[in-house]
Amino acid sequence: MDNIKLKLTPVKMFHPKKEADNRNDFRIYSCTSNNGEVILNSYNCFSIKGVMQRLELGTEYTAEISLDSVDPKFGATYNVVTHPHQEIPDTIDGQRDFLSTMMTETQLTELYKAYPDEDVIKLILDDQLDHKKVKHFGEKTVKRIKARIEKNIEFKDILGKYAKFGINYDTLVKLKNIFGSMQLASQKLDECPYVLTQLNGYGFKTADKIARAMGVQMDDVERIKYGIRYTIEENEQQGNTFIYRDELIVTAIDNLQIDQSLIEETLDVTEDLIFIDDKISLQKTYNAERYIASSLIKMHLESPSEMLKFNPEEFISEIEDKHKEILKNGLTHQQKDFFRMIQKHKVGLLVGYAGSGKTQLQKFLIELLNKLKLSYVLLSPSAQAAKVTKTYTNFDAITIHRKIGYGAPKEEQENYVITEDFVIIDESGMTDVFILSTLLSKIKNPKARILFVGDDFQFLSIQAGNFLHDAIQSGVLPITKLDIVFRQEEGGLLDIATKIRKGEYFLPDNFQGKKLFGKDLLIHCVQQPDMEKGYKHYYNYLLSEFTPQEIMVLSPTKKNKLGTVQINKYIQSVVNPESHEKLEYTYGKNKENIVRVGDFVLNTVNMYRKINIENKEVDIVNGDSGTVVNIKFDDDKKSNDEELLESEMKGIIVEFDTGPFRIDFSNAGQLLAAWCRTGHKAQGDSAPAVLSIVDRSHKFQVTANMLYTMLTRGKKKAILLSQAETINFAIRKVESKRRNTHLCELLKQGVSINE
Q1: Confidence grade of residue 645 (pLDDT, cut at 50, 70, 90)
Q2: C-beta separation of 701 from 556 below 8 A
Q3: 193: cis peptide before it, omega within 30°?
Q4: Where are the beta strands (DSSP E) in 234-337?
Q5: Burial of 544 (C-beta count, 10 Å sphere; 0-12/13-18/19+)
Q6: Of the ranges 29-33, 447-451, 485-489, 566-570, which one carries the lowest mean pLDDT score?
Q7: Is the pTM above the cut of 0.85?
Q8: Measuring CA to CA, which residue among 496, 499, 471 is closest to residue 350?
Q9: How far is CA 158 from the centre of its chain?
C-alpha cells in the first residue's frame, strides 16, 4: 500500500503513559484527520506510531504515514514515515493559529494588538520583535517560540530522512549543537555516520548498525578506523592506557568482522593514535599521561631551590607536645619522615593502609600550613571521599571535578583555576589520567606544592590509568610509606583488615557461627540459604543503635537477591515504607523503580553550575547523597511572561548538602537508593556502622581488596555476613595492580613536555 501524506491532529498519547518514562522517543498517538484515505475507528480516529518528537495535542501537523495493521476493535495503526511537522503559514490568520499552540490566549491577543498587520513569524525569526511592546511577554518567551519555529523549519525534511535508520529527534538536536546547524549536521552524518560516536549513548556498535543501514560497506576505510579506535577505547574501559598491537588486531577482527589484512593496512594510517614500539594508545590518553609525568617531574626538579621555610625537627617536637593525648608514644619514624619530605619536596606521596594514621598526618600538615600562612585546598576524587576528608580533618574538602570545573562548558573552563600554595589530594589512587592531567593544568601558582594521599591496597581507578601504583613503582617521586597499623593489637577490625591485606587466614574453611573480633567487628558465617534472612536480621539489629543514614550496607554486586537493588528495596520497606502521607514516583520499563519522599539517595551524574530551589548556583556531582524531601507532580502556577522557577516545576526534590535541588522525572534514573551500595561505590566513604554481605555467589566479584575496602568503611562497628570458605577464597584472590600504562616509564625517563 502506498504512503499517505496528510494533515493530522493528535488527540491522545497512548505510549508512553508518562512522558518522563520515554527513553527512545518511541510514541503512539490517537489522531483525527479529514483525509479520506485513512481508515478510522468508531471514534473517527486512527493511531500513528514510531520514533518521533513529542507532539502537542490538538495541534495540526503534516506527516507521511504507511499502514501497519488494522485491529477489529481499535481500528487502524500507521507507521510514521516522515516525522510530523507544522507547516509555517504565510497568512496572518494562519500564523495566528500556528502561534496559538506556543503561547497562552492572553499572550496571543496582546501580541496581535502590538503587531496587528505584520508578518509576526518573520519578525521573531529576524529578531525584530520588541517584547517590551507586548504585555505578558518576556525575552525568554520570545526565544522559546523562535527556537520552536526554527525546529519546525530545520527538521521538516531531515527528521523524515533519518528516522528510518533509527536516528531520533533528540539525536539530531545534539548533532546540531555540535556542528552549529542542522544542515551541517546532516552533511556530516551523510559523509560519515560514525560521527554519532561523539554522542553519549552511541558506541561504535550502535553507530555501525546505523551506518550499515545507510549503505556503508564492511571494508569502508572510515568504518575500519572507527572500529580500531573503538577497540582501543574498549581496552581503556579495563583501566589500560595502551594496547599491544597483536591484541588490538585480534580484537578488532572480532569487532569488525573483516580480514586481518584490511585492519593492518588501515591501522598505520588511522588518525589520533600514538605508536610506541608495539604499544598503541589514543593520542589524547597518551598526551594526558605525558602531561602528568612532565608536570610532576618539573615540580620535583624545582624542589631544591624552593624548600619550605620551617625546621622539621622543631615542628615534630611541637606536634608531639601539643597532642600528647593522641600521640601517647609520639610520632613513628615514618610519620617524622613525612614532615622532612614535605620540607624538601614540592611533590610527594603519602601512602598508608587503614589505621596507619594518614588522616592524622593530614591534620598536622594543615596545622603547619596555617602556621606558615600558606593557602591550601583539600581535594578528593568523589563526593563521598570529600565528605569523609572534611569530617576527619575538620577542614573543607571538595571534589576534584568541582574544583577544576571538569565537565563544565568550554567557555567557562578558564574560570576554574588552582591558585593555592598547597594541594592535597586524598584517595589519589581513584584518579584517572584525564582528571589528573586536567587538575595539573589548572595549577596557576608557580610555587604550588602537591601531596598525593592514598592506600595502595584499595581499588584502582575505574577509568584509564594507574597513577598511584605507577608513581610508587617509578621510584622517581618522594614517598612516605605508612605500614604501622595502630590499634591492631586490639584484635578488632583493623587487625582483621591487616590480615586480609597480608593474605593471612583467621578462620578455618569449615567454621560456622558467630565470632567477635575485638570490640568493633562481628563475623557471622552462615549457610547460603540463610544469607537473606541474616542480612535482614542484622540490619534491624543495627537500627536499634544507629539511624538509617549512619548504616552503610555493602554488597559486591547490584544483581540477584543479595545485590544492592533488592537489598535497597527491602531497606526502603523497613525505614521508609509506603504511606498515604508520602508521595512517590514510579518509573522504569515495568514500573519496578520507586522513589519516595524520605528516601536516602545517591546522585550518579555530574551537574555543574545549576540553579537549585533556593535560586543558588550549585554543583551536584556523582556521589553526592541526600534525602528526598518532596515530589511535585504538577506545576504550582503557570507564568504568562517568563519560564517557571525551579521551585515551581514538577520533579523530585532532593535535599543535598548544597540545599534543595530538583531532579526532573526524566532523569529519575540518576538517583540510586543510598542505603546499600557496591563495594566500589563505597571507596573513599565511611559510616559509623557497616554491614557487609559477601556470599558464595559473589566469588567472581569479590577479592581481598574488595573485602578489605568494605570492612574498613566502618568507623564504630562492622558486621560481615558470609561463609568462611568464601572469605578465605577472597583472601587468596588479590586484585592485580598491573595495568598497561605508560606513566611509570615516562616518569623514569624524565620526559619533557616539549619533547
Answers
A1: low
A2: yes
A3: no
A4: 243-244, 273-276, 279-282
A5: exposed
A6: 485-489
A7: no
A8: 471
A9: 32
